Amino acid sequence: MPYPRAHYYMLGVVAIIVAGFWPSYFSVWTNVPWQFHAHGVAASIWVSMVAAQSWTAHNKQLPLHRAIGKSSLFLFPFLIAGLAAIINRQAMNYVAGDPVHLLYGPAFMAGTMVAMAAYVTVYYRALKYRRKVWVHAGYMLSTPLILFESPFSRAAAFVVPAFQVNGPADFPHIMASILWSCALELVIIAVIWWRVRERAKPFLVTAGFIVVEMLAMAFAGDIALLRRIDTVIGHVPGEMMVLTGFAIGALTSWAGWQAGKRPAVPAGGAMQPA
């Protein structure tokens, strides 16, 4: 089976999520907006699910592996709905005049939208190619990398002085930590490519989205159209955003599952597309 120690790395990602979001989420669980819960719970379960998939595959628990994989069909809509909720919350902060979001709100919005598109693309392809072990594993294992920059940039700020924010003058450190964390994601993918070469192509798809995300985060704040879109989203009811995200996720699960079905075999024995 490919990537035999991947589940250990996934547990490391879980640890970074807890460390990075401890001050702003886990330690103040009862005092955060509902959008944080919609995203935080779904994303945390998703990473844990990917770790469980890897562990079951490498411990020859294939029936359990398949059962967990099928559960992802129902989890994925909640994952995308959570991202839509975060986009809505970021836009609300922008409209409300939060200093950080006034500076970076459109960039946060654009980056999260790219991340949503990445999840949809990667998960769809993981389902479509679920019978090709290396391809399926690569796409599923690359999903935690899509938003790895978010917890890692926060965790890095605890120990790297150049990323710490002690006041408004340090707000540029926020974007610097995000972009450097994205660069680290690309380094991780480069190492995977160096080790398994062509078999790592699914990770290259994710790398392409990470590059687009970096560009969006770096330059979106200067685009007037994106500032207007952020303002519009900030006035959209959160429930509508969540339902839209849920619908996108559900459609992705359905389409990916259908695309990965075996071709139908007619009575005569000739193969025809399903």
What's the SSE blueprint?
Layout (H helix, E strand, L loop, with lengths): L5 H16 L12 H25 L3 H35 L2 H30 L4 H14 L2 H9 L14 H25 L4 H19 L4 H11 L3 H22 L15
Question: Can you characterise this structure?
Answer:
The two termini are about 30 Å apart. The chain is mainly alpha-helical and about 270 residues long. α1 (about 5-20) packs antiparallel against α2 and α4 crosses α9. It contains ten helices and no strands. The chain is globular. The mean pLDDT is about 90. It has helices at about 5-20, 35-60, 60-95, 100-130, 135-145, 150-155, 170-195, 200-220, 225-235, 240-260. The protein has one domain (about 5-260).
Q: What is the H/E order?
A: HHHHHHHHHH
What does the average pLDDT come to? 92
Strand % is under 5%
Number of domains: 1
Calculate the terminal CA-CA distance, rounded to whole Å: 28 Å
Number of H- or I-type helical stretches: 10
> What about the largest sheet?
none
- For the secondary structure, the number of strands is 0
Oligomer: single chain
Share of residues in helices = over 70%
Low-pLDDT parts are none
Q: What is the 3D form?
A: globular
Based on CA atoms alone, the radius of gyration comes out at 19 Å
Estimated structural class = mainly alpha
